[in-house]
Queue: 2 jobs
Job 1
Amino acid sequence: MRWGVVTFPGSNDDRDTLWAIEQVLCEPAVRLWHKDTDLQGVDVVVLPGGFSYGDYLRCGAMARFSPVMEKVVEFAAAGGLVWGICNGFQVLCEAGLLPGALVRNRDRRFVCAPAYVRVEETDTPFTHLCRRGEVLRIPIKHGEGCYVLDPATLERLERNRQVILRYVDANGRVTPEANPNGSMGNIAGIVNEQRNVFGLMPHPEHAVEKWMGSDDGLKLFQSVVASFRNVRSADQTAVAPGH
Amino acid sequence: MNLEQLLRPVDEYHAIEHGLTPEEFQRLCRELGRAPNLVELGVVSVMWSEHCSYKSSRVHLRKLPSTGPRVLQGPGENAGVIDIGDGLAVAFKIESHNHPSYVEPYQGAATGVGGILRDVFTMGARPVANLDSLRFGSFDHPRTRYLVEGVVAGIGGYGNCVGVPTVGGDTYFDAGYNANILVNAFTIGILPANRIFRARAAGPGNPVMYVGSKTGRDGIHGASLLASAEFRGEAEAKRPTVQVGDPFTEKLLLEACLELMEQDAIVAIQDMGAAGLTSSSVEMAARGNTGIWLDLDRVPTRARDMTPYEILLSESQERMLLVARAGCEEQVRQVFAKWDLDAVVVGQVTDDGMLRAQFGGREVVCLPVALLTERAPVYDRPVRVPADLDDRQRLHLADLPYPSDWNDTLLRLLDSPNLASKAWIYRQYDWLVQGNTVVGPGSDAAVLRVKGTDKGLALSVDCNSRYCLQDPYVGAVIAVAEAARNVVCAGAEPIGVTDCLNFGNPEKPEVMWQFVEAIHGIRDACVALRVPVVSGNVSFYNETEGHPIPPTPTIAMVGLIEPVRMYTTQWFKAEGDAIVLLGQTREELGASEYLAVIHQKVAGVPPWIDLAVERKVQEVCRRAIREGLVSSAHDVSEGGLAVALAECCISHPEAPLGAVVELPASMRVDALLFGESQSRILLSLKRRHLGRLRDLAQQAGIPCAVLGEVRGRRLVVSPWIDIECATLRQVWENALPRRMESPAVNGGKNAQ
């Protein structure tokens, strides 16, 4: 499968995401520029972390108007896999591909630290190789990661099992102390209703090499690869009888 | 002021207003054969300022060792460059941004980071890490919390947005910095060893190009008035001299410059830092033995009706000046256009050795480059040993009572802001971006991998200014030794130093004495440990209303680990590991944290240090790590053995591990537990490796004593200390948050 990683002016973790995909996962990837209007036939688009356009207005508020985002919205509508990490999650919310918004952390300060997140759902292309309830150690680094939304939408999100990751303590318990930014319901990551668009605040691309601390983030990348292969082989099985 | 007025000859009053002495002004007129006009006076005043000319320090800086087989670029460029093998090199430098950070903490600290980043990518290096060395006043002072909050947010706000990880640093609190904090920022970058960009304007006729942000009225006279003079209690009034940072533009500028450097279009390049367009053009011409002609009408401005004086002296951020190869102008413009940045030809390299600038069709500056640089005033200022030194160095241990409880003493030390966990600070820095951080903040040294190689870099920054206050020579020796020891504890070989020399007013002989002593200390330590000083910065006039800061010669050390996977951290790893002390403990408590916190005393002399012994201790530690014998290694420093043991127990990023230790009662208990004897390293290792470690230590003639073992969840130092690790950790972790989070956090905002 072919990965595409978007670089907005101000993206920082684009190189790190490419490193995870190309050097650790050993999968092919292309760099997409914010002015591109062609996604070059990629199978999954990653919107990386950073400070797109400096994030001087609202995080992600400018990036959603870039030419490449128009194509990403079409791609998502057609069922393509779109994955937003940190600033990418903020861009997806601003673009309306995911519900809710990410606002200033509860204590008003940027936070960079290892975090524990619990995998709530595994029937997504992004978490498919994880166990339900599995606790992953993946770092966070953001100033505006407090996930908020109106009560009705939150209720719908929970009912549809769109909450994919929650901040927990090392033992997997959802506690106020384990919530690093004040997010409602300790929410760290969600998908859209169709489950093909995924946004999360933690940085899985910074947890892909065990000797450097943790490789728990790699499972999310591997899930995408595995689910893509499954879909492909399922498609082939489905069409095979007709031939 | 109109152009006519600007071009009139000035008199001595103007010159004194600009910070020149009457003698300097007379000399200027004599050399020029005329009085300068106001624009020229502005140029001369910044170039002759302490900040740009190093006039008080130059004769002494020459004494520092700056050569070695790995040195590719020593002092005199934007950053020093060291060869790390396999065709790669590292460029690094540390720089101060002290006064701006006191006046406007967020922007002052942020633009300090921005400036040092530009110094490094100017050399053709991609910045891979920042460190920050911070000194604040005591928490009793009303402005301290406001300054801490603002400086930390500013460093994070800039570094995080640019995408360069802040992987470490050091922070101390001392009343001596109450009204003059220190913000020293360090950046290291990686570049191909055979492709170093320098700032030497060569090739008369080559175009001089201006790239980056537009020029505004911000920061005019930052270098001369803010950085080169004492404060006189008017911090708020000086706000306009502080620049405003834009990390997003910096990120674009960085990417554009590095992209252009891949092409063969640049002859020379320099950041427009202190003294902006003036110093960048003058310094490039001086290094290239050429002249520069500038057409100031072509400089992109963001304010209306800027005068040539303002354009030349503005310190607007995120700007660079480059000399392109003639004919490559369009190529340069295209690369910068891709990143939505300006690139404009503003002048030309000439062969007449002059700085000439024209504006509105008139020549407004015509000054010899040499007069602004190598013929700038140089002073060998008088020195005097402070009259009270003997008194201050006196300490009778026999008169010092024991505290009533050793457990409580240890807890009080861990609660001291100087020894406490700095997580409250470094949690606000992105120390992960770029994906190279092997060891982040919170161990003796940070460790980065170098992608595409087997190498790692270890980074540390250090200076105990209380030692320097009591004896600046020994204090500086210890700063170098400890910075080296820190990178050695990570498993690295020290390969290079950059120093940031923060002192008071050099016109005071006592301050000058501190400076010269510190230089001699750095020199002797670097020679003994065989590390060159390849770049640095001097910051004088760190005083407020006549009180100099404690002398603070901050040392940043770069080490090389090969292979990087052999790195070590400071915390205990496994139950049953033996705990070993390398080096000797002496009965000494002078200038210690124990004396300051428990006895409210700053007295005595700093710990004894023998550089030959230091070198051997480091050598044994490094060999033991390389041979894979060591589970953890931690430098014993402020707070002594008891605090070092506690840190080994509680600094583990996940669960703490306890230790059971027995110390022979060979001296005063407080000196044994909390004395800060130098050249000591605490190791933990598997028992089966003890024999080999003992052999290494014996060959080197270094004491090596088994103190106990890693065990349980308590720290037991029998017969004096026995505390739960959880308690130690709670006190140590809460010391900063509880001081920062108390209600009046912004109460000092308007306090002076």
Note: Chain A touches chain B at residues 9-10, 12-13, 15-16, 19-20, 49-51, 53-56, 109-114, 139, 141, 143, 170, 203, 205-206, 211-213 (CB under 8 Å).
Job 2
Amino acid sequence: MSAVAGLAESGVTGLLEDPDREADLLQSLADRVLKRAAQRGADQAEVGVNSGLNREAGVRLGDVEVLEEARDRGLRVTVYCKGCTGTASTGDLRPEILDQTVDQALAIARLTQPDAASGLAEPELMATSLPDLDLWHPSDVAMEALIARAQEVEQAGRAADPRITNSEGASVSVEAALSVYANSHGFVGVKRGTRFSQHCILIASDESGMQRDYDWDARRRFSQLADPATTGAEAARRTVARLGAQRIPTGRFPVLFVPEIARGLIGHLIGAVSGGQLYRRASFLLDAAGTQVLPDWASLIESPRIQGGPASAAFDGDGVATRESALVADGTLARYVLGTYSARRLGLETTANAGGVRNLRFEGGDMSYTDLIGEMQRGLIVTEVMGQGVNLVTGDYSRGAAGFWVENGEIVWPVEEITIAGHLKEMLTSIRAAGTDHDERRGVQVPSLLVDGMTVAGQAAE
Amino acid sequence: MYQEVSEQLLAPAGLGSAEIDRALARLSSRGIDFGELYFQRRVREGWALEDGSVKNGSWDVDQGVGVRAVAGTGTGFAYADSLALPALLDAADSARSISRTIGDGKVSALKVANRVARYAGTNPIGEGDSAARVELLRTIDAYVRSLDERVSQVTVSLSASHDQIVVAATDGTLAGDQRPLVRLDIRVLMEEGDRREQGFSGGGGRYGWADLTEPEVWQHYAREAVRQATVNLGAEPAPAGHMTVVLGAGWPGVLLHEAVGHGLEGDFNRKGISAFSNRIGEQVATAECTVVDDGTLDHRRGSLSIDDEGTPSGCTTLIENGRLVGYMQDKLNARLMGVEPTGNGRRESFAHLPMPRMTNTYMLPGQHDPAEILATVEDGIYAVNFNGGQVDITSGKFVFAASEAYRIRNGEVCEAIKGATLIGNGPDVLTRVGMVGNDLALDTGVGVCGKEGQSVPVGVGQPTLRIDGLTVGGTS
């Protein structure tokens, strides 16, 4: 009871000031839940408890628009009884509610049907070394400082160009998250991380109409966050560059995807080789292990234990130790992306990817962005895609897009209200060249990618 | 309704009218224009079947209080996942920090708002026997598999939520609501040779399980999912280019949601960042087009008895005979624009701020028989089902992705074509509506709308429409 009273008392800054104490509290809750599950007849159980705080200041046209201060806590428990599974979660962490939550999970497990693939990962797969991955860099930045910084970001953007006529605002936030994963093998893992971010969304207008674009940055250390003026000015540059956008004729052209959008393409590849899609046969890359999925000069390397990485973790969502490995080596799919459950469904070993890939990097590119534009000569640069037109079952890809038209290796005008279409399998293997301009802010880091021959629809055919 | 909810939600946490008054007075002790407490408890239950068996179920409870204080255009916001008084007062202290001036601590006398119930207070969670829902999923699975031997994967899910909310605000608002929401989803994968295609169907609304578990209801969705997958197994690559598009009735109304709906939300227009800003009174559609946002439809997924600010929901005309006549408003944006709130103030949960959101958005029926509309098209596409859409409210560009479509040639519906993205310009697309059908239909109740990271359930609808010129993103 004392532990829980402590929880209720710890204020917004408690997590930042004393994360060890918070971790101890969460562990005691996890322990209570696992004990109750065992007492009530669960053969196995696992529990995740998280605690987070968020402080954010948003300004618009120089005035404060939103100040937000929040603490979140939650607990999710999964129980396994004779091959049957039940899950329950609660945001109310009082002891009697935790007990009820366990009982609910057990009640569900009594109604569900046995599944041979269910249950915890084998005990010998649990992470045994839990190195400090340098993810926790708390700075208790006061709200006043966040407001001032957001004003600086927005002001830099508004001052950058006379065609910036309006703003959707700038915001700066501090986040800290701590979580405990524990299971009935006796595994207990604690994760904690800080994240500082700033965003700026601007509106530009001229006789051609209005355009909106943005820039942002996010880092684990407040001191590493981009200079406020840089984020504001970049948001302005991107927004103004879209003014006067035109449509282009329908036809087949090479397409250069900028890093943020190229990351989506590689994301579709990751999705298609993920266990859940594979055992449901809902993938255009069924049985693709050992076959070519990217050009032979390209590789995708996962490095989950990088110090300070955006997605670093020593154990996955099942408590399994993470390790560095290639997903794609020299263009060939080296393995799938599997957690314990999907691996069992497929008769394979887990790849420690419960919860997804962590710090996956596209390797093999060697060109600058400017050189890639030159290499393309004539075609489309895509800086934005819209809509849900991606079918992982068939690989069919058709999306709204905006960007720039390139003639003679130079950007000539902005483009909007067009679609780009192709088949993912062909698009991925026909990547002609890649850059070195990886988006370092993300857990999946991809540079600009030049893809040959996609169908671009705009006006009547050329 | 307020009494019933407050007894279930607030009383167990030791909160009564004295505590609510105290928290509101604390908010008002700074110079604010408006302060509000939003109490919520949401319980969700879900069951999913795959490979012929129900392998997992879930039960989730979330509760808490969101407190906001508004001064001018600024909002202070804090929330707590505890309903206890100390947490409530802490949140009030954080939220009121938006204002640096001293207030008088006065609060308008709280008065329970008038409301018309758009759904019963039914609580589907734990209603009847959970084992019956597990059994129903297995029955649906067997039925789907009996429809076609090419069916290789079936996933079926049943989900329900029950939301209890209380809103108390310094403007005197005191309101409560209980919102049931149930949903059935059926997804099939069919294989023929080396082709694999999916079909999806489902529906739901604000009622209990009973309405969803009737055999004629789920059998209809099951047949529909198999039919869609069958159509897609025979689909050919879609054309690319600018062409005439006929949109079917019902769910294709996602066009209206994206192309005009978001652009007519009060916040974007107050800030002057919507492609529709400052265009009230202008002709933005052909005269056949009248579009409304209607939260008052009984039992609909997007309907609300009151919105999340306690304002009774309404039916707001957005476009009347082609002329732009109104925006959707929450309290903040209505006050700043000098108009009345329209019952569109919605939030995902107590942990999110309310903003103007759609409820059920649809176009009223026109004169034409759908067959008559198709007959007028020499060369185009007929799109009857969609995955969803997206819009850039500033440039007005929107997309929506077809999941079932056909080629039209010489007025005849011909071969099925693969799903393609359609792209257009919001302020322009309704000026190209050549014909409006007499067959208004609303969707079956599966819509989820995302805005600034917040998801809320919505409905869409329309009659059959002919649009004279949209860009179709195929490959051939």
Note: The two ends of chain B are 57 Å apart (CA to CA).
